[in-house]
Amino acid sequence: MKNWRDFYQENSFPPQNLDQLKASVVAFGIYPESLHEVEGDLLFLAKDENQKRLIVIGSGRIFEAFQGDTVIEGQLKSCPLSHENAKVLRQLFPFTSPVSHKGHATTMGLGDRLGLASPGHLKLIKDYPVFPVLAQQSIRELNLTQRTYDEVLDAASWAVFQEGYTNGFGADGDHLKTEEEVQMALDCGYTMITLDCSDHIDNTITQLSDEEVEARYQMLPVDVVQRLEQKYLNRSFPLENGETITFDPIPLKRIALTYCRSIDYTINLYNKLLKPLKKPIDFEMSIDETLTPTSPQAHFFVASQLIEGGVNITSLAPRFCGEFQKGIDYIGNIVDFEREFALHEVIASHFGYKISIHSGSDKFSIFPIVGQKTKGRVHVKTAGTNWLEAMRIIARFEPALYREIHQYALDHLDEAKQYYHISARTENIPDVHGLADEELPSLMDRDDSRQLIHITYGLILQAQGEDGTPLFKDRLYHAWNTYEKEYEEELIRHIGKHLSKLGIRKKSPEG
Ligand code: ZN
């Protein structure tokens, strides 16, 4: 196959017509939408020996700005997709920098743990009225994949450049818990902060008797009690759908005791770190990773207290009834979910923010409800499902490698269960050595094996042989780089199914 060197030999620069050139570059391993001309310099991404490089042709300011190997002095340069070059890219091309998603109805977190999924996501999303949050990782994910926020954002910026996607994307520091974590994400240029204050939610209150609740409540400062009671006690708050939220004494006290510390924590952190910022930041409050489902009263209380404390909420993630396990459909009673979700949605609209659905991968049975009730004004987070589609590629094209990894995952499942709660039962997973090669991809369609591969991603990527070299990681990346197109196609199909179940229709052409 020809490469970018041949492209350089066979054409004259600067090109006469960039659009015409785009049509002919695929044959050289060049990403057509990445072709950009600035001040007479031409730059683009190309694949070379299974690696992506930034190629710059010219002699001007742009040529000098990027660091790389000079192929022809003052004419041709091949640059790595490094952090330094990503910073230059973001300066030269503002669309490769993340931005706030305020004003966009449907927003979607498309976590990319491998730094490989965003091009496929963009190829899909460009046809839909959906704002993508491409860089989205929690600290847990960073630790398990041994990546940094810089690397996660850089991968998104390069993907946006590769696809020529100029409609804007977000970067979400997901499930951040401490001031240091929030500050780190902000310093790296992240535009969305998801604060997880679950460590400050008191889950023990639900188990207390009414008398115990009363006793604990009396220990709160007098002025706090006074203010709470004045504001909420025996009062009813009408919502836009005709329902009202009311607070009886004991439920109010339970809610106050459960959430007060987390509310104070959030208000302090917000006012200290986020309020002073000049540029808009999307702030999400996540109370989803806790034991008890968020009642509509609790949701109302938390939101109302945060707003009174000066917090500008973009989205809030309640803990819904039922189970939102990773990488599989909703587990629970759909009728109950629908009733509760409708109320959560009305509360969110009442205060002017949107509901955020965490662990939104593959929740196909409830997506129609989510789409209808929110009329598309919602944030949905996915991440693990993009990793699973990457593993489907391995199952399809590298069956021997897949079997090795599958066995490794089974052998290390107990370790992975420390990080993620799943209900998968290994006895339901067929013996991988008894399956024919062409049957392996179907493991990615079965809940038990999906969850097995889903939660072991960190162990798989970090696994080392006795000599300290990666057991799987290099072979995996080699395969994913080889089957790049096929991975894109699987993502377009699978995330496309998310959009269609949510009822999101393609943008009508030009208008
Ligand atoms: Zn969450």
Question: Can you describe what's shown?
Answer:
- The chain has an eight-stranded parallel β-barrel with strand order 6-7-8-9-12-13-14-15, surrounded by seven helices.
- It has helices at residues 4-10, 18-24, 61-65, 83-92, 118-125, 139-145, 149-163, 179-187, 210-218, 222-232, 249-274, 296-308, 334-351, 367-374, 384-397, 399-411, 413-416, 447-455, 457-462, 473-482, 484-501, and strands spanning 36-38, 41-48, 51-57, 69-72, 76-79, 106-110, 130-138, 170-176, 192-196, 236-238, 244-246, 282-286, 315-317, 354-357, 378-382.
- The protein contains 21 helices and 15 strands.
- The radius of gyration is 25 Å and the shape is globular.
- The longest helix is centred in the middle third of the chain and has 26 residues, at 249-274.
- The chain starts with a helix and ends in a 10-residue tail after the last helix.
- With 511 residues, it is α/β, with parallel strands linked by helices.
- The model has no long low-confidence stretch (mean pLDDT 95).
- Zinc ion is lined by residues 175, 286, 288-289, 317, 358.
- Zinc ion (ZN) is lined by residues 175, 286, 288-289, 317, 358.
